[in-house]
Design a protein that fits this description.
The complex is a heterodimer of chains A (220) and B (804).
Chain A (H helix, E strand, L loop, with lengths): L2 E12 L2 E13 L4 E5 L6 H8 L7 E6 L2 E2 L5 H11 E4 L11 H11 L4 H14 L15 H13 L5 E5 L7 H16 L3 E5 L3 H4 L4 E6 L2 E2 L1
Parallel strand pairs in A: 3-8, 3-9, 6-7, 7-8
Antiparallel strand pairs in A: 1-2, 1-4, 4-5, 9-10
Helix pairs in contact in A: 3-4, 3-5, 5-6
Chain B lengths: L1 H14 L1 H28 L12 E9 L5 E4 L6 H8 L3 E16 L2 E10 L3 H4 L4 E4 L10 E5 H8 L8 E6 L2 E11 L12 E4 L9 H5 L7 E6 L5 H16 L8 E7 L19 H42 L4 H38 L9 H27 L3 H6 L9 H34 L9 E5 L4 H16 L4 E7 L9 E6 L5 E8 L4 H5 L3 E4 L7 H6 E5 H6 L9 E2 L4 E7 L14 E4 L3 H6 L2 E3 L7 E6 L4 H15 L8 E2 H8 L1 H35 L1 H9 L4 H35 L10 H28 L2 H4 L4
Parallel strand pairs in B: 4-9, 6-8, 15-20, 17-19
Antiparallel strand pairs in B: 1-2, 1-10, 1-11, 3-4, 3-7, 3-10, 5-8, 6-9, 7-8, 12-22, 12-23, 13-22, 14-15, 14-21, 16-19, 17-20, 18-19
Helix pairs in contact in B: 1-9, 2-8, 2-9, 2-20, 8-10, 8-12, 8-20, 9-10, 12-20, 12-22, 12-23, 13-18, 20-23, 22-23
The chains are: A alpha/beta (220), B alpha+beta (804).
C-alpha cells in the first residue's frame, strides 16, 4: 500500500457557514496504480491532489503515506517526505523563466543537497531519456507548450519519486501534444511509477487504471 | 473631474494606510530637513545685504610683501587710511573706521567687561543699522556720545529710559563718562559688523598712541568706504599705488605695499582673506549642508517612486479595468498625479510643522538663532517644493502605470508584476550610496573627535580652573600675583600661576623679527610666572625652569620649546643670549599643543618680562585681549567647594571686581565646537537617510516578492525550505548594496580626506571603518528585506500556484 486516506474532511468558513471542500474521502492507493480524478469545476479535484501531495492541510481524518502518519507529522518532516517520494506536474508547467532547461531540471536536486557530480549525471540521464539533450541550454520561452510540459515531467521525475501528481497536465496543450504526454505517463507507469492525474478529459482518463469521480468534495 | 480624482486618491490613501504613512513620513522628514537647511543657507548668503548701499560699500585690505615668509595680509588697516583715501579720491563718497576695544563699563554698582566698537561719526550715514530711539540724525556727533543696542540698554538700564543717562568707560587708568545719545536695534545676525556699544572714534588719541596713529605698518582698524554711484572699484584700486608711494615716503619700497577693495557683501564668505574684527565662514559648510538637505529630500522623492512602482503590481489590474472601461491614458495619468499631489500636500504640511517643531534643535546644531518667518519667500519655497516633489514623485508612476496595456494586464498570470528593472535598482543604489557616504562620515568624524579630545596635549588639562582678571597693565599683574599667593595657601589648591594668556585662548602673541642672519622668523610668545610649568605639568628637557625670586630670571630669562630650538637651528641653546632680544635661554621645554589641534606646534618663547620682546619684535599680533589670567590646579574632586574657595580668596583681595572662572577641559572642548556640530549634523543626516533608504528598500522588496510569488511557490514545491527562499531574495538585495558600497567608498574616502586635512593631527581613515560601514549596511538591508522575504517564504504554494 502506497497511501491511504481515511475519512478526510477539509472545509473553510465563509460567512459564518462551513463550506466543505473535501467530505469524507476514503481512498486506498497501491503502488503502481494510475488513477484519474474527474469531476466538474470546484468539485475538489485539485484540493484532493494538494492534500495527497502534502502541500495543503486537511481538517479531519487520517492520512497514511507508506508507513508514516502524515496527519501527525511536523511541517518539516512532511516536507522531507514529499521531497523524497512525490513529484509534481502542473497544467501551466511552472518552469522558471530565468533558468535554462538544464537548470530547471537541476533545481529540485539542489534543494535535496545532491552533490554536484551526481547532479550532473542525473540531469544528463534525464535529458537523454526524454530526448531533449539538444534543448538543454534553451529557456522555457523558447520551447513549445508540449516541450515545456515534457521538461515539467522530467523535472518531476528527476529525484526518482514513487508518486507523480499531475494537475491537468495537458490542459494547456493541443491534442497531439496531449497524446504524447499521456503516452509518456503510461510508459512511466509501466516502469513502476504510481501516477495520480486530475483531468477533465474522458480520453485522458482512459489511460488510467482507475477513475475517481468527485462532486462537491465527495467521492461518488 | 478633478474632484473625482481627489476623491479616488483619498480613498486609495485611506485604503493603504501603511503605504501612505511610509510615503508621507518619508517626504515630511525630507521637507523638514530641506526647509531648515534652506533657512540656514539663505542666512549664510544674505550677509550684509540689508544695507541699502551694500553694492557700493567696500572694505580696504592690504598686502605687504618683504620677502619669503615675510608677507602680511590684513583686512584691518592703518588708522589714517580712511582719511588719506578720502582726501585723495573724490570718487569716495564717505568712509568710516571700525575699531574694537575692551573696556570696563560701569553704571552705578554694575560693571561689565565689554567689547566695544569705536566708529567714525559717519558710521550711520553709510550703514543701515536702525536707530529706534534718540538722536537718529547724528547719534555720534559729540565726543561723549554712546549708542547702545536694545539688548545692551536692557542690560544696563532695565526698564528705565536710557536716553541721556550716563555710563563710565575705563581707558587705561582714565575713567570717562559717556551719555547715551541713541538706541540702535541689535545688528542683524547676518552682518559682518557687530556691536553692542558704539562710541565715536573722532578723538583718536584716546584709543591710539602717537606712534600707532601715524604708522602705516600698524593695522588696528577696519576701513569701510562708500563709493559714489557708478564708481568702479577696480579703477579706483588702480590709482592707489601712487598715493601709497607719496604717503610712505622714505619707507617706500617698490612692490611691497598693495591696497585693495573688498566688496562688503563678499566679506563673510571670502576665506582667501583673513577675518577682520568679526569671524568669517567657509562657504563650504553652507554648500555641504545645502547638498545634504537636497539629498535627503531627493531620497524621499525616490522613495515615493519605488514604493509606487512596488505597488503597481496591485494597481495594474485597476488600470486594466479602467482602460477596458474606456479611460484614456491621459485620465489615468491625471489620476496618479492627483494621488501624488494629495500625498505631497499632506507631506509638505507635516514637513512644515516638523520644521517649526525642530527649529530650536536645528539652531543648537548650527549655533545660529534662526527663525522660520512666514514671509513671501517662505511661501514661494513651499510652493516650489510642492510642485517639485509632486513632479518628481508622480512622474514615474503615472507614466509607467498608465502605459499598461489592458489586455496584457487582465490576462496576466497572477504573480507577474511589473519589473522595476534598471531604473528602480539605480534609484535604490543611489539612496544607499548617499546613506553609506554619510554613515562613513559619521564614523570618521566621531573617531577624529574622540582622538582630538583624548590626545595627549603635552600638558595637564584636568582639574584646572582659569580665572581671568579682566584688568590690564601693571595693576593687573600685581593683583594676579597677590591672588596666586593667596591661593597657594589654600589646601584645596595644589598650584596656581599667572600668565598673560592661558590655554583657553586659542592663540597667544605672534611675534615676528629679522634675526642676525637677516632671516625673518616668527614665534609664539607668552608671559608666564615661575609657577606656570609646575601648574600645568610641562616637563623641561634641557636646562632649568624659572627660579622664583631670581632677579635676573625675571629681567631677561626665557624658556623656549623644542620646536624653537629645532627650527631656529640652535645647537647648544642653554645659556645662549638670543639674538637682538638680548634674552638668555634658561631652559627648553618639551613641545606641547598650546593651540587647538587644527594647528601644528610653532616655535614658542615664554618670559617673565615682556619688555625685551615687545621692544625688539617688528611685528606683534594678538587675537585675545592682553589681560593676565590665573590658572589654578586643584587638589580635589570637590569642584563646588574649590570654586567657593577661589571666589572667597578673590573677594578678599578685590571685593568690587567680578569673579569669573572656567574649567579648562570644558573650555578646550569649545575649540572643537564646529567639529562637534558637524558630527551631530552628519549623525542626524545619516540616520534620516538610512531611515528613508530603508523604506525605499522595503518598497523594492515588496515589489520583488510580489513579482516572484509564483517562482517562490514552484521552488517550495520542488523542495526549497524557508532559509533557501529568504537567502535567495536577500542575495538579490545584497548585490545592490555591494554595488552601492563600491560606489560609496571612493566618494566617502575623498570627502573625509578633505575634511581631515583641516587638522594638523588626524587619525586618518582606516580600512576597518569601511568594513564596519559595510557590515552595518548589509545588516540593515537583511533586516529590512527579511520582513518581506520571510513572509513570502511562508506563503503556501498552493495559493501562489493556483491558476484558475
Amino acid at each position: 500500500m502506497l497511501l491511504q486516506l481515511k475519512n478526510i474532511f477539509k472545509w473553510v468558513n465563509s460567512g459564518g457557514q462551513r463550506v466543505f471542500l473535501l467530505k469524507d474521502i476514503n481512498l486506498d492507493i497501491e503502488e503502481g496504480e494510475f488513477i484519474s480524478v474527474m469531476g466538474p469545476s470546484g468539485s475538489g479535484k485539485s484540493t484532493l491532489l494538494n492534500v495527497i501531495g502534502m502541500l495543503d492541510n486537511f481538517d479531519e481524518g487520517e492520512y497514511q503515506f507508506l508507513d508514516e502518519s502524515v496527519h501527525a507529522l511536523k511541517e518539516k518532516k512532511r516536507a522531507n517526505l514529499y521531497k523524497e517520494y512525490i513529484g509534481f506536474v502542473f497544467q501551466s508547467y511552472h518552469l522558471l523563466d530565468d533558468l535554462t532547461v538544464k537548470e530547471n531540471l537541476e533545481m529540485p536536486l539542489l534543494y535535496k543537497k545532491v552533490k554536484g557530480s551526481e547532479r550532473k549525471a542525473m540531469v544528463a540521464d534525464m535529458l537523454d531519456r526524454f530526448n531533449i539533450v539538444g534543448k538543454k541550454d534553451l529557456f522555457p520561452s523558447q520551447l513549445s507548450g508540449g516541450q515545456q510540459q515534457l521538461v515539467g515531467v522530467a523535472r518531476a521525475l528527476i529525484s526518482n519519486p514513487k508518486l507523480i501528481l499531475a494537475d491537468e497536465p495537458t490542459g494547456n496543450l493541443n491534442s497531439q501534444q496531449s497524446e504524447e504526454i499521456m503516452d509518456l505517463f503510461k510508459q512511466l507507469n509501466e516502469e513502476g511509477v504510481t501516477i495520480i492525474q486530475v483531468t477533465h478529459s474522458e480520453q485522458n482518463a482512459a489511460y488510467g487504471s482507475r477513475i475517481i469521480n468527485l462532486l462537491d468534495g465527495r467521492m461518488i | 473631474m478633478f474632484s473625482s480624482y481627489l476623491k479616488i486618491a483619498w480613498r486609495n490613501i485611506v485604503k493603504n494606510k501603511g503605504y501612505a504613512a511610509i510615503n508621507i513620513a518619508g517626504l515630511a522628514v525630507g521637507v523638514c530637513c530641506f526647509i531648515l537647511i534652506a533657512l540656514f543657507v539663505k542666512h549664510e548668503f544674505s550677509y550684509d545685504k540689508f544695507h541699502a548701499n551694500a553694492d557700493r560699500i567696500y572694505r580696504v585690505w592690504q598686502y605687504e610683501n618683504y620677502g619669503p615668509k615675510e608677507d602680511f595680509l590684513n583686512t584691518t588697516t592703518p588708522v589714517s587710511m580712511v582719511n588719506v583715501l578720502r582726501e585723495n579720491f573724490p570718487e569716495i563718497e564717505n568712509g568710516s573706521r571700525v575699531f574694537r576695544f575692551n573696556s570696563l563699563v560701569k553704571r552705578n554698582e554694575s560693571e561689565f567687561n565689554e567689547s566695544i566698537r569705536a566708529v567714525d561719526p559717519s558710521f550711520f550715514e553709510i550703514f543701515d543699522f536702525d536707530i529706534v530711539a534718540g538722536n537718529s540724525e547724528k547719534p555720534l556727533a559729540t565726543a561723549n556720545a554712546i549708542v547702545l543696542t536694545q539688548s545692551a540698554a536692557t542690560k544696563y538700564f532695565g526698564n528705565e529710559d536710557p536716553l541721556g543717562k550716563s555710563l563710565s568707560l575705563e581707558f587705561n587708568d582714565e575713567v570717562r563718562v559717556y551719555e547715551v545719545s541713541a538706541i540702535a536695534a541689535d545688528p542683524p545676525q547676518a552682518s559682518s559688523i557687530q556691536f553692542q556699544l558704539l562710541v565715536s572714534l573722532a578723538n583718536e588719541a584716546l584709543f591710539f598712541g602717537e606712534r600707532i596713529r601715524t604708522s602705516w605698518f600698524n593695522v588696528p582698524v577696519e576701513s569701510y568706504l562708500l563709493l559714489g554711484p557708478e564708481m568702479s572699484a577696480t579703477q579706483l584700486e588702480a590709482k592707489f599705488p601712487a598715493t601709497i608711494k607719496q604717503y610712505l615716503g622714505d619707507n617706500y619700497e617698490e612692490d611691497t605695499f598693495f591696497l585693495h577693495l573688498q566688496p562688503m557683501t563678499a566679506i563673510h564668505h571670502d576665506t582667501s582673506l583673513p577675518a577682520g574684527i568679526e569671524p568669517i565662514s567657509n562657504p563650504r559648510y553652507a554648500y555641504v549642508l545645502a547638498t545634504i538637505g537636497f539629498l535627503v529630500l531627493l531620497l524621499a522623492c525616490i522613495n515615493f517612486v519605488t514604493l509606487a512602482v512596488g505597488r503597481s503590481f496591485s494597481r495594474a489590474t485597476e488600470v486594466g479595468v479602467r482602460k477596458a472601461l474606456g479611460a484614456f491614458r491621459k485620465q489615468i495619468v491625471h489620476q496618479f498625479w492627483g494621488e501624488a499631489l494629495l500625498i505631497t500636500l499632506m507631506a509638505v504640511t507635516f514637513g512644515v510643522l516638523l520644521a517649526f517643531l525642530f527649529q530650536d534643535t536645528f539652531n543648537s546644531l548650527t549655533g545660529k538663532e534662526l527663525l522660520i518667518t512666514l514671509d513671501l519667500s517662505f511661501w514661494v519655497i513651499t510652493l516650489i517644493l510642492v510642485v517639485f516633489i509632486a513632479l518628481i514623485a508622480g512622474i514615474y508612476p503615472s507614466i509607467v502605470l498608465s502605459r499598461f496595456n489592458p489586455i496584457q494586464v487582465l490576462r496576466r498570470k497572477k504573480g507577474k508584476g511589473a519589473s522595476m528593472g534598471f531604473l528602480g535598482k539605480s534609484l535604490v543604489i543611489t539612496q544607499f550610496v548617499a546613506s553609506i557616504v554619510m554613515l562613513i562620515g559619521t564614523l570618521v568624524i566621531g573617531r577624529q573627535i574622540d582622538y582630538l579630545v583624548t590626545k595627549d596635549l603635552g600638558y595637564k588639562q584636568d582639574a584646572i580652573v582659569v580665572v581671568p582678571t579682566n584688568m590690564s597693565g601693571e595693576e593687573a599683574d600685581e593683583f594676579a600675583d597677590l591672588y596666586v599667593a593667596e591661593l597657594k595657601k589654600q589646601p584645596l589648591v595644589s598650584d596656581a600661576s599667572r600668565s598673560l594668556y592661558s590655554f583657553m585662548e586659542n592663540g597667544w602673541v605672534d611675534a615676528g623679527f629679522t634675526d642676525a642672519t637677516n632671516t625673518y622668523r616668527e614665534f609664539a610668545f607668552n608671559l608666564i610666572d615661575p609657577n606656570f610649568l609646575k601648574t600645568h605639568g610641562i616637563p623641561i628637557v634641557e636646562g632649568r625652569d624659572f627660579i622664583s625670586g631670581s632677579e635676573s630670571d625675571a629681567q631677561n630669562g626665557v624658556l623656549v620649546n623644542e620646536t624653537f630650538v629645532k627650527e631656529f637651528g640652535l645647537e647648544n641653546p642653554i645659556g645662549v643670549t638670543y639674538d637682538k632680544f638680548n634674552v638668555k635661554i634658561l631652559g627648553v621645554v618639551k613641545d606641547f599643543n598650546f593651540l587647538s589641534l587644527n594647528n601644528t606646534i610653532d616655535p614658542l618663547l615664554m618670559a617673565i618680562n615682556p619688555t625685551p620682546i615687545l621692544t625688539h619684535a617688528e611685528n606683534l599680533e594678538t587675537q585675545y585681549t592682553a589681560q593676565p589670567r590665573v590658572s589654578v590646579k586643584l587638589n580635589t574632586e570637590d569642584l563646588s567647594s574649590s570654586i567657593s574657595t577661589l571666589k572667597s580668596s578673590w573677594e578678599k583681595i578685590n571685593p568690587t571686581q567680578e569673579f569669573e572662572y572656567s574649567f579648562l577641559d570644558e573650555a578646550l572642548m569649545v575649540q572643537y565646537q564646529n567639529e562637534l556640530r558637524s558630527k551631530s549634523i552628519v549623525n542626524i543626516a545619516s540616520i534620516l537617510s538610512f531611515f528613508i533608504a530603508c523604506m525605499g528598500l522595503f518598497g523594492l522588496a515588496t515589489l520583488n516578492v510580489a513579482r516572484r510569488t509564483a517562482e517562490i511557490g514552484i521552488r517550495k514545491v520542488m523542495g526549497a525550505g524557508v532559509m533557501n527562499i529568504v537567502g535567495m531574495i536577500s542575495l538579490d538585495f545584497i548585490k545592490l548594496v555591494l554595488i552601492a558600497l563600491l560606489l560609496a567608498f571612493p566618494i566617502a574616502w575623498w570627502a573625509m580626506d578633505q575634511w581631515l586635512q583641516s587638522f594638523a593631527y588626524s587619525t586618518g581613515i582606516s580600512w576597518w571603518i569601511f568594513v564596519i560601514a559595510g557590515i552595518i549596511v548589509i545588516g540593515i538591508t537583511l533586516i529590512t528585506v527579511s520582513f518581506q522575504s520571510i513572509r513570502a517564504s511562508l506563503i503556501n504554494p498552493v495559493i501562489s500556484l493556483r491558476t484558475e
